[in-house]
Design brief:
The protein is α/β, with parallel strands linked by helices. It folds into two domains: 154 residues, Rossmann fold (3-Layer(aba) Sandwich); 55 residues. The strands form two sheets. It has a five-stranded parallel β-sheet with strand order 5-4-6-7-8, with helices on both faces. Helix 2 packs parallel to helix 8 and helix 4 crosses helix 6. The chain is elongated, with a radius of gyration of 23 Å. The protein starts with 10 loop residues before the first helix and ends in a 19-residue tail after the last helix.
Length: 258
């Protein structure tokens, strides 16, 4: 068995990446008045009333998150990507699609985790209607007026559940951009004991997040840079994942002596 190798970022690489974070605006927090007490330890200073993150600490947090995602990919774990605010939704969806992962970027529907059995029924309904539409069965079974109503139902189901239509069970991890904005998702993950990784700003509660990456979560440049790093780590792990195969063993039959 080959030993596990942990790659540690060199000082030069770390400095280079910190420069990239700085250029992306990842160091900018919100006004001091909006600061959540749990993020104080990740701050470098306050300038003109705005909190400034310590990017060395941000880089260290990101490395931990990357190692976690790499291990998750290596063992075939599912990560649910969540980001419903306008600044992040497009970026989060693209990241999820790149890794072939489920995602929620339009709206978090209450019960997606805590009442998954009911949510699955809505997903099954969507799949059934889409199948009937593709086969032409909708044209045969329903009038034009009924098809209009069904079409609206399909649009609504697609909007709410298209990103999780392939999910069969609760995810192993949840990756969220701005946990304060998607507080309901965080609460449901906590109830179902799904570990949460989050790109989070200075107004978020770090105590609710198992794997925080504290940085600017509003600037698209910042979110994109950090998500790219996380996605690369997850894909690196997934590329080495080998699914377990079930051996088909033929039953042995005992022969009686003649």
């Amino acid at each position: 068995m080959s030993p596990t190798v942990t790659i540690i970022m060199s000082t030069t690489d770390q400095t280079s990446f910190i420069d990239r974070l700085f250029k992306a605006g990842s160091h900018f927090g919100f006004k001091k008045s909006r600061r959540h007490p749990t993020v104080a330890k990740y701050l470098y200073t306050t300038k003109d009333g705005n909190d400034i993150f310590d990017l060395e600490k941000t880089t260290a947090l990101l490395e931990t998150a990357k190692e976690t995602l790499k291990e998750a990919g290596l063992h075939g774990k599912t990560v649910l990507f969540v980001g419903t605010k306008d600044e992040a939704s497009r970026i989060v969806k693209a990241a999820a699609e790149k890794t072939e992962s489920p995602y929620v970027t339009n709206r978090w529907i209450g019960g997606m985790l805590t009442n998954f059995s009911e949510i699955k029924k809505r997903i099954n309904r969507l799949e059934a209607l889409m199948s009937e539409k593709e086969s032409g069965e909708l044209e045969r079974k329903y009038t034009k007026k009924e098809r209009v109503v069904i079409g609206r139902e399909v649009d609504k189901l697609n909007f709410n559940f298209a990103g999780i239509s392939k999910i069969q069970k609760l995810p192993d991890y949840m990756l969220v951009v701005d946990p304060r904005h998607d507080a309901i998702a965080i609460a449901e993950a906590k109830e179902k004991r799904v570990p949460v990784m989050a790109i989070m700003g200075s107004d978020c509660d770090a105590s609710q997040i198992q794997i925080p990456v504290v940085a600017n979560d509003s600037l698209q440049t910042s979110v994109s840079l950090i998500l790219d790093e996380l996605v690369s780590a997850y894909m690196e792990g997934k590329s080495a994942y080998v699914p377990k195969t079930v051996e088909n063993r033929r039953p042995t039959t005992s022969r009686r002596p003649i």
